[in-house]
Amino acid sequence: MATAYLLRRVVETFKITDVSGLIERVQQVGQRLLAAQPREMATGNIVRRVLGVIREEAEEDRDGETSGCSDGGTHSRPLSAGEHDPRAPELPGPVSRALSSSPLRQDTGDQPPFEPSEDGAFERPTLLTAHASYANTNTGPVVTSMFSLLSHPRSNVASTTATPGSQSSGSLPPISTRALANLTAAKDLGAEIVVGIQEIVEELNQADDQIAGYSSEHIHSNEIILTHTSSITVQKFLLKAAAKRRFTVFHAETFPNDHESTHATVIGKANGGPDDELRLESFQKSLTVAGITVILTPDSAVFALMSRVNKVILDTHIVLPNGGLVAAAGAKVVAKAASMHRTPVIVLSGVYKLSPVYPFDTDSLMENGDPGRVIGYEDGGLVNKVEVENPLFDYVPPELVDLYITNLCVHPPRTVGLKVLIVCLRGGHAPTYIYRILADHYRTEDIEFDRINVCQ
Amino acid sequence: HAAPIHAEPEKENKNVALFDHLYGHPRRTTVAGAGKDVHPAVLALGLQMRNYVICGSSARCVSMLLVFKRVIESYTIPSRNSLPRHLTTHLSSQIDYIVSCRPISISMGNAIRWLKVEISNVDVSTPESQAKSDLCDSIDTYVREKVTVADQVIANKANDKIEEGDVIMTFAKSSIVQQTLVEAFRRGKTFRVIVIDSRPLLEGKNLARALADLGLEVQYSLTHGISHVISHATKVFLGAHAMMSTGLYSRAGTAIVTMSAKEANVPVIVCCESVKLTERVALDSFVHNEVAPAEELMIQGRTSSLLSKWEDVPNLQVLNLMYDLTPAEYVNMVVTEYGIIPPSSVPVIIRLSTNS
């Protein structure tokens, strides 16, 4: 959520000259966010979505310009550069691109593209050096860099900034007028992109409520539900069902990492944690007030209870393309116990949690928390002798999950193909379809945006 | 006018409906109201059990037998009554008191059954002092045979299963597992121990501390970390509250550990004295179980303020289950003093141990 707001600001404040610059900028911001919290995949997902919006708007823009070129959207990759293709047919492709983008690039190169960055948090010097080193590596084989320009919108930035004088000096005048026209178009483009990001923000805001909308299709009267960790998504889902039906909820407390907010949730008070603002915003009356019997229980009792539980509803941290998920530690045994007892496991997840990054090694997604939560300060002596483990997340393989419920149904037209799926599966989807949703949501070129600079 | 509003939620039944049959009366917290027959040692023992000072199936069983010895020593046959007849009822009132403090364990039940048979076998013609000392001797023998020596035998047998470089995982605290690990350490085996623990008793912390003090390499985590640490383990050693032919009945959370072990193909070895074997069968953790007071789940400190008011929240219940049943399929072997058996052979050992 905060990511979307941040990126909106980035886009708003960014002097839009051309799309590739903007994409680059967003990528850099995204990389910085990811570097700060590499396992917070939702952040990366939002960045991808924003990139997707930018690319889409750019494509629409170009389609408008090249009137009649209706199939322009199919070769989507050379976005910014492609704008000038039809206008300068006499020039060889790569050269024209280099020329057309060079004045603009020079502009951003002289006063670096990071200049308008509003946030003190981003240290420009490091970004600049990264930029410079990037350019250096590309100067050598000019031909290859020009070639890669076709497939990589980012790399034309480097090649042109690296060799600005040699190529652009002669052909500046004819380009400038076009650049001017381009600039005005780009301003509209910027506004459109901001609107697009706004849509994403709204989607995030509504995600939980949309998910909750499916609750009546999945919870029947007198059911016993088991859930794990405190989650606003799950709470809203259950609350919505509670409006019409009576059921019982076993709530595993998720000691030691999340038990405080779980306790706060069952008691019906907003947690005074660091994300206080968000919680207060989405604070609602608790389940118990709605007349639902909530039974708080330690995590250890999950297996014992499972034989009487009708459904397990889990929140998730991220959902992986294979249909597995990364959730709060302890979720794995809950899901496993459920599958042993043939109890269906439903995972509630906003689409923004569906992550296209497939981790080869799921251990790399894991994170260890504060051991002090496992062994308190009163047992300080023990800490010296005993290795204390406190994982924060669990990887739950897809075979343990029966259904995903996302907020997809009321989604922009991009997911038309999905709507069919959704209708077929009545609001939920089986884990195996997750990859399809991903394909609809993220552009392939954005999936690895965080790796683009890695080799430099 | 605030009083009636507060009184109303208090009336609400805070018992979890599924476990209503397990609640019984609230646990006794003081000796007030105990029967006048109840021996002072029993009074103390009851409270110790209630507060988990004496915790664990065997510890409770042994301490109960030792206290009964003192009861028998200070017992005099009332006039016009015989020892086999009257002592049983006298003991029953002691047992009732102990049960009111905390429900008795399977091993205690087995021991009580044995003691009652012993008492009824006493010849009426035996002089009182003789009969009493005989009973005390047989209690000593029972404790020695069934627990002390049995533990040593089991520790030795289980030790054969520990190999160099093993990573032994255990859950909560079992005295017999501790003894096994200590014995292995004494024999100079190099191995690592992972202790998994769970709220609210956190018994494993004591085990981890004891083993770490010895110099063993110990890793400690809670049930939430099980799916991570299980991949490092090569064997799981567990104690038991009771062992049935249908499964292992032990501290809540054991089933989670064994399930993860099964998934990771790690063998599960249960160390269990024959007193803990029972012919009772259970298919789930609902019919037989113990529900501990919910207050024990409250955490002192920062969150205490949050959860301590749970009773005022309507429709909120807190469940503190003591045990769960691990299906027999998760248990690879049971080490008893009679030998190493699969769970399905539990009735055989019961027959062996009760006939001898």
Automatic annotation (TrEMBL), chain A:
Gene3D superfamilies, per database record? Translation initiation factor eif-2b, domain 2
Q: Where does the protein end up?
A: Cytoplasm, Cytosol
Citing just one GO molecular function, the answer is: translation initiation factor activity
Keyword Protein biosynthesis: yes or no? yes
Give the CC-aspect GO terms: cytosol; eukaryotic translation initiation factor 2B complex
Note the InterPro entries from the entry. Answer: eIF2B_beta_subunit, IF-2B-related, IF_2B-like_C, NagB/RpiA_transferase-like
Its keywords, alphabetically, are: Cytoplasm, Initiation factor, Protein biosynthesis
Q: What is its main location?
A: cytoplasm
Q: Where is this region: Disordered?
A: 57-121
Q: How does it assemble?
A: Component of the translation initiation factor 2B (eIF2B) complex which is a heterodecamer of two sets of five different subunits: alpha, beta, gamma, delta and epsilon. Subunits alpha, beta and delta comprise a regulatory subcomplex and subunits epsilon and gamma comprise a catalytic subcomplex. Within the complex, the hexameric regulatory complex resides at the center, with the two heterodimeric catalytic subcomplexes bound on opposite sides.
As for family, the record states: Belongs to the eIF-2B alpha/beta/delta subunits family.
> By what name is this protein known?
Translation initiation factor eIF2B subunit beta
- Species source reads Alectoria fallacina
Q: In the UniProt record, what gene is named as encoding this protein?
A: GCD7
